[in-house]
Design goal:
six-stranded antiparallel barrel; Pdz3 Domain; alpha+beta; Thrombin, subunit H; 3 domains
Length: 461
């Protein structure tokens, strides 16, 4: 009897296990069916873009003195686009870099029809462009809300990588708020591991509800192929830019008139802070919006209109999506106290953008050694134990520079150059001016491990 009961028990376990396995397989099949249905739903709203242009020829001077002309060459490109609706009109959204040098642009839809496209507007700072084709009643994608995206959420990418039209890949949102690749860019990226390759630019990133949450724009790769690190422009930024391009033909952005940078841990510690949240005002440009409102150098911006500012990407994005002439309220930290300042934004122009990384004031310098120094401030001296010392503080060291090679780091104090006392930035610059390019010289620096002499060589170029 016991053997019979035991056998019955084992049999029931086997049946239960089989039922569970069947249920799991059913869930997998349902998930697969769901992905396939999603792809079928969104693919018609994604287009293939091909471009043609001309690569201007050049004349090369050969070693034996005869010029060698290279004639103009045809230039062809390809990418992706998304059909979206604004004010009851259909447009094609793509990347600026897909069409920036094109003379002829053609759009191919999923039923193999193709159309000549007209550029409505394009914006290099966000890498967004808007096209128009002479056809109506195309399938459009629903615009989602990228602010609701969560890290780890499933997403689907659709585009035309390497010319393979309407390819579909799946992945997750790897990260949000990724910094863009250059200082002359606005906004942040969605990072995804959905496979992206050349030609995916301008294509769709959609959530599992079929809503467009991003426009695929870039990859990080050692060889130009996919390694699972791709980037998309959040759709909320795309909507803001596209609407302005459609209405004005350009994007109107606000301008504070400051040079900014993220807070580094050592600098934050030296300023008496226990975290790196906020953005440091490195320089206030005279006569511009921030200067008129009373913003000061070394202010730390914590909020814009009650919205937290965590880093440079946050501040640049919040100001950039605000129209010129609008008044914003900054919450800044100054000398340990919080202060609210209202600033009426000016307009970001090409001229202002070109000078945004302009000259700094006399309290700081970068110089030939690849370091930036500033006069030692009381709060820094107190935090780092330099109260009874003099010198200039190293606040930044360029990667690969002469200073980096010799072991100089942020937070060190330069006190002497070739036995000449250095107490101010002016002293530092005067000492370096007297050193011939290629010459070796000594620098006495103070760090957390004490004072030491460092041998340096003045770069030739």
């Amino acid at each position: 009897m016991r053997k019979f009961c035991f056998s019955l028990f084992i049999l029931s376990l086997a049946v239960a296990s089989s039922a569970q396995a069947s249920e799991n397989l059913q869930l997998l099949r349902q998930m697969s069916d769901g992905f396939a249905e999603l792809a079928a739903q969104v693919k018609p709203g994604v287009v293939k873009i091909t471009t043609e242009g001309t690569e201007e020829g050049r004349v090369f001077d050969l070693p034996w003195g005869r010029p060698f002309p290279v004639p103009d060459q045809p230039r062809r490109g390809q990418g992706s686009g998304v059909i979206a609706e604004f004010d009851d009109q259909q447009y094609i959204i793509t990347n600026n870099h897909v069409i920036s040098r094109a003379e002829d642009i053609r759009v191919e839809v999923t039923d193999s029809r193709f159309f000549a496209a007209e550029v409505v507007g394009r914006d290099s700072l966000s890498d967004v462009a808007v096209l128009k084709i002479d056809v109506e009643d195309l399938p459009t994608l629903t615009l989602g809300d990228s602010d609701q995206l969560r890290e780890g959420e499933w997403v689907m990418a659709i585009g035309n990588p390497l010319g393979f039209a309407h390819s579909v890949t799946m992945g997750t949102v790897s990260a949000l708020g990724r910094e863009r690749f250059g200082p002359k860019e606005y906004g942040s990226f969605i990072q995804t591991d959905a496979a992206l390759n050349k030609g995916n630019s301008g294509g769709a990133l959609v959530n599992l509800r079929g809503e467009l949450v991003g426009i695929n724009t870039a990859i990080t790769s050692n060889d130009g192929g996919n390694i699972g690190i791709g980037f998309a422009i959040p759709i909320n930024l795309v909507k803001h830019v596209a609407e302005q391009l459609i209405e004005h033909g350009e994007v109107r952005r606000g301008l504070l008139g400051v040079h900014i940078r993220d807070l580094e841990p050592l600098l934050a510690e030296a300023m008496g802070l226990d975290n790196t949240q906020g953005v440091l005002i490195d320089q206030v440009r005279p006569g511009q919006a921030a200067d008129k409102a009373g913003v000061k150098r070394d202010d730390i911006v914590l909020e814009v209109d009650a919205q937290p500012v965590y880093n440079v990407v946050d501040l640049r994005s919040q100001i950039g999506r605000t129209a010129p002439g609008v008044e914003v309220e900054l919450l800044v930290l100054r000398d340990g106290e919080r202060k609210r300042i209202k600033v009426e934004l000016e307009s970001l122009t090409e001229e202002a953008l070109a000078t945004s990384a302009g000259t700094r004031d006399s309290n700081e310098t970068r110089g030939p050694l690849g370091i930036r120094v500033e006069n030692l401030k009381d709060e820094w001296a107190e935090r780092l134990g330099y109260e009874d010392e003099s010198g200039v503080m190293i606040v930044r060291v360029a990667r690969g520079s002469e200073a980096a090679k010799r072991g100089l780091r942020r937070g060190m104090l330069i006190q002497e150059i070739n036995d000449e006392q250095v107490e101010t930035v002016e002293d530092y610059e005067d000492a370096l001016e007297g050193i011939e390019p290629g010459s070796a010289f000594m620098m006495r620096v103070l760090g957390q491990r004490g004072t030491r002499l460092v041998g340096m060589r003045m770069p030739v170029n």
